[in-house]
Design a protein that fits this description.
This protein is mainly alpha-helical.
């Protein structure tokens, strides 16, 4: 699996799948009384809890960065409205030109 080009959605899906499979494994081994299995189950539960907490922290950090970027973009657009319109027009024209050439 090439993780360099994965989308956030694909990573989220993979992590959710991993968590579901780990929970299924925990449920399947609930009745096993072997010490090694019990120890492995405990480590897996701890790792899952840690990963869930870490994912929540990362989500909030990314959310804060996105909001800060949006605020900064809003500030720049409000400070330079005509330049922003010109840049948006130029980008739209270039994108339109590229899309019509492709078809």
């Amino acid at each position: 699996m090439n993780t360099h080009f994965e989308t956030p959605g694909a990573l989220r899906h993979d992590s959710q799948t991993l968590a579901r499979e780990a929970k299924a494994l925990l449920e399947a081994t609930a009745q096993v009384a072997d010490d090694k299995v019990s120890e492995a189950r405990q480590r897996l539960m701890t790792a899952l809890a840690s990963a869930k907490e870490s994912a929540g922290d990362h989500y909030h950090q990314i959310e804060e960065k996105a909001l800060a970027g949006a605020r900064q973009a809003d500030s720049v657009i409000r400070s330079h409205p005509y330049e922003s319109i010109a840049v948006a027009f130029g980008f739209g024209a270039l994108l339109g030109l590229l899309l019509t050439r492709r078809n």
